[in-house]
Amino acid sequence: MATQNPGTQLRYAGDVNIEKIDIITPKGVYINVKNQLIQIRIFEDIFSPFISGAIVLKESFDFQTLLPLVGEEYLEIKISTPTLDKPISGLFHIYKMSDKINVGDRAVGYELNFISSESIVDTNKRISKVFAGKISDIVSTFVYDKIDGIETKKKFNIENTRNTIKYVSTYWTPIQNLTFLSDNSISENQSPSFLFYENRDGFNFRSINELLDEYVSY
Fold first, then answer.
1. 156-158 and 202-207: which strand pairing?
2. Each residue of 70-81: pLDDT tens digit?
3. DSSP 3-state assignment of 176?
4. Angstrom distance (rounded) from CA 218 to CA 207
5. 3-state DSSP helix/strand/coil percent for the chain, to nearest 5?
6. What is the mean pLDDT of residues 200-205?
7. Ramachandran class of 7: left when φ > 0, alpha when ψ lies in -120 to 50, beta otherwise
8. Closest by Cα among 214, 48, 205 to 135
9. Whose CA is closest to 18, among 105, 99, 78, 83?
């Protein structure tokens, strides 16, 4: 009788396989913190444009001074859940350290909050121009374009819209434009409720009706 790989079996609720968790400094130095990891939380929300989360570390190397942590670090992770095919992986920006406490002799614990790296691109762009055409075509611009978009290389799952639009982006970020377009989109099946969000499969621009139909089909 063949035995299963332990990494593919769910051993308990919340079980995950942590394949990679590295802090990347502004100078490009990779620090493996897998052995210092106490907890990791990752949030995928259809009402949020980016994946976010936090890690809790316990260490005695004083990483925050040695690196140091200055708000320009990134976190590269690859985490999988047994029985699920698609891992959560990618590059995330560390934007805050919080809850630092002493937890023993020369050991400290603290939480590092992170968000998808595309959020930094979005924060630093302000777009002022006229856009016109089919909404789903314009949406692709704000996802992929190097001038007006968040410049992602991730997969983008987009549902076609039936309506067109003409409007002025008044120094909006790409995400502000995507939110406006979501609010004004109509699907080919006449659904007016679109969402732009990120999950482990990439970025998505889809109507609530299509999401419900997909859920029911399962």
1. parallel
2. 778 999 999 887
3. helix
4. 17
5. 20, 45, 35
6. 95
7. alpha
8. 205
9. 78
| Token pair listed for 151 | 């410049």
Q: Which two tokens mark 21?
A: 């968790």
Residues shown for the chain: 218
Rounded distance, CA 77 to CA 87, Å?
10
Angle between the N-to-C axes of helices 135-144 and 174-183, in degrees from 0 to 180, rounded to the nearest 10: 160
pTM: 0.85
Amino acid identity for residue 198 in this structure: E
Q: What does the alpha-carbon distance between residue 92 and residue 77 come to, in Å, rounded to a whole number?
A: 8
Tell me how far apart the terminal alpha carbons of the chain are, to the nearest angstrom: 31
How, if at all, do strands 52-59 and 37-43 pair? antiparallel
pLDDT digits (tens, 9 = 90+) for 112-141: 999 999 999 999 999 999 999 999 999 999
Mean confidence (pLDDT) of the chain: 87
CA distances from 96 to 86, 100, 117, 119, 194 (A): 28, 11, 14, 14, 31
Query: Is the Cα torsion angle 89, 90, 91, 95 positive or negative in sign?
Result: negative
User: 166 pairs with which residues across the strands?
Assistant: 132
Max distance between CA atoms of the chain, in angstroms, equals 65
Q: Which residues contact 193 (CB under 8 A, 6 or more apart)?
A: 207, 208, 209
